Amino acid sequence: MVASVPTPTALAIGADHAGVAVKSALIEALTAAGHGVTDCGTDGPASVDYPDFAQAVSEQVTSGRAGLGVLVCGTGIGMCIAANRHPGIRAAVLHSTTEARLTRAHNDANIACFGARLTGIEVILDSLRVFLETPYEGGRHDRRLRKLSAADAALTQSEPAP
User: Fold this and answer.
1) Which residues contact 141 (CB under 8 A, 6 or more apart)?
2) Which of 48, 127, 134, 149 is least surrounded by Cβ atoms within 10 Å, i.e. has the fewest?
3) How far, in Å, are 80, 102, 128 from residue 137 at the CA level?
4) pLDDT tens-digit profile of 1-27?
């Protein structure tokens, strides 16, 4: 469970209507483990748009107010797609502890996405624990992350000003 995470981290968490129950369980486990958690919503079963919550969590992470983020929707896929549209975000849908370990170690992922309709709560809790415990390895992976950062910068520069 998440309770064994050694170093408390500031986390941002969000969910759409399909993920609200899982989000609540995660907040309970994370706060019990000593993590600071910013709840970016939603809080009920009424239909909402997942990109709004992915944006809120992504902004918390890219601003440095949160070290890592967690997003939950029905499949995890929509949240992941929406979060990855933000420069500096490396979100991944997780279904196992192996994916959680590798996405942190090799990709320095900063947002974990989960599918409430596809993955059981115990697997989600275990995967989140591993995601939080695993450091980025650096080394050979740095070159790839520099390419992602360069792509983010190019996209940001090519976007017209509002």
Assistant:
1) 105, 106, 107, 108
2) 149
3) 22, 10, 18
4) 343 334 568 999 999 999 999 999 999
What CATH number is attached to the domain comprising 127? 3.40.1400.10
Range of the domain at 154: 2-158
In contact, 148 and 88? CB cutoff 8 Å: no
Whether the CB-CB separation of 47 and 17 falls below 8 Å is answered with yes
* Number of domains forming the structure of the chain: 1
**Are residues 91 and 111 in contact, defined by beta-carbon separation less than 8 angstroms?**
yes
> Among 43-52, 75-84, 106-115, 138-147, whose mean pLDDT is lowest?
138-147
Q: How many CB atoms lie within 10 A of CB 5?
A: 19
Average pLDDT over residues 94-114: 97
Tell me: the pLDDT tens digits for 51-80? Answer: 999 999 999 999 999 999 999 999 999 999
Q: What is the pTM of this model?
A: 0.89
* CA dihedral over 102, 107, 113, 117, signed as positive or negative: negative
CA gap 62, 110 in Å, rounded = 9
Phi, psi values for residue 33, rounded to 5°? -85, 0
List the catalytic residues.
73, 106
